[in-house]
Amino acid sequence: VGAVKIALEQAGEKAQGAVLASDGFFPFDDSVRTAAAAGIGAIIQPGGSIRDQQSIDAANELGLIMICTGMRHFLH
Question: Counting Cβ atoms within 10 Å, is residue 70 exposed (0-12), middle (13-18) or buried (19+)?
Answer without folding.
Answer: exposed
